[in-house]
Design brief:
With about 140 residues, the chain is α+β, with helices and mostly antiparallel strands. About 30% of the residues lie in helices and about 25% in strands.
């Protein structure tokens, strides 16, 4: 679908002059509103899905008090083929497919794990790791 609006640097949006020149004034006002309405209808019907990251992004996992780094290779929804029926954790969830740098480890994370064990930035992951270390030290005392 063609983008009908542009964004100002400080926020806000506008219809660029090239769009205005291609269509008459009434259509120019109506086209972005019609497009927005389609997105809103899709969202209301549960057809619009917002992904937490994109393919190629790096995500971080806290694993045994260390950080593991993975590349996002794709997404799916629900449960993967061949999984056990007991694996209810991944039903009706966005699954983030990953591989490590050597591409010898592949797998997936459930998107709802973001912020717990999985993080979208190294800084967030390192901060959580520090918090976990402080909690560990406090619980030992």
């Amino acid at each position: 679908m063609e983008r009908l609006t542009r964004k100002y640097v400080g926020g806000g949006a506008y219809v660029p002059i090239d769009t205005v020149n291609r269509v008459n004034e009434e259509e120019c006002v109506g086209l972005p509103i019609t497009k927005l309405a389609r997105y809103e209808e899709a969202e209301e019907q549960g057809l619009l899905l917002r992904l937490p990251c994109k393919v190629g992004d790096t995500i971080f996992e806290i694993n045994y008090k260390s950080l593991k780094e993975y590349k996002v290779t794709g997404f799916s929804y629900g449960r993967l083929m061949g999984q056990d029926e007991e694996d209810v954790m991944s039903k009706n969830e966005i699954l983030i497919h990953i591989c490590n740098q050597n591409k010898d480890i592949t797998g997936y994370f459930v998107a709802s794990e973001i912020g717990e064990d999985i993080f979208l930035t190294r800084e967030e992951a390192e901060q959580k790791l520090k918090e976990m270390e402080v909690e560990n030290e406090t619980s030992r005392k």
